[in-house]
Amino acid sequence: MQNHLKLHLILFSVLVFIFGCSSSDLSEKEEKLSEENIDYSAAEVDYINIRSSNTGSKNTYTKNILIPLEKIDGCDYVVKGKIEYIKDGAVVATVDFGDGECDDIATKTVDGKKYTFNLRGKKKSSRYKKNILKPLVKIDGCDYIVEGKIEYTKNGAVVATVDFG
C-alpha cells in the first residue's frame, strides 16, 4: 500500500512537471490580462487645462452652458451643445459639440487656438470604448481632473461611467 502511494506521488509530480506552465506562460497571461483593463488615462487633447494669470486667486472657475448638451437615440455621443469656461472674469476655453450630426467630433478653443478632438477613444489593447460625455477639466495647481464625465461601453452596452464631479 505504501509503495502504491509513493508511485502515485511520483507520477503526480512528473505530470505537474510536464504539463505545468512555465514562468513565461505566466508573464504572457499577466500581460494579456493587463491589456484587457479599462484605460482611465486622458490625453492632453481630451481635457481643458484652465490656467490663471492671477496667482493670488483661488483655482475656481465658472461654467456657462451656452447651448444645452443634447444626445439623440442611436448615437453614443453628445451631438450638440456649447460650453464656455470663465476664470478671473475672462473666457478661457469653449467646447463645441457640433450642430446635431451624430459624430464623435468636438472642438475646444483655448487661448484663441481651436483644437478638434474625438469624443470616443479606444486603445488597441482595450476591450472597451471610451465616450466623453462632459468635457474633462483640469485647473492650475491640481494634478487631477476636477470635472467631466466618461462612459465606457462594450458591445454597445455601458459597463462603467466615471463622473469627475
UniProtKB/TrEMBL annotation:
<protein>
    <recommendedName>
        <fullName>Lipoprotein</fullName>
    </recommendedName>
</protein>
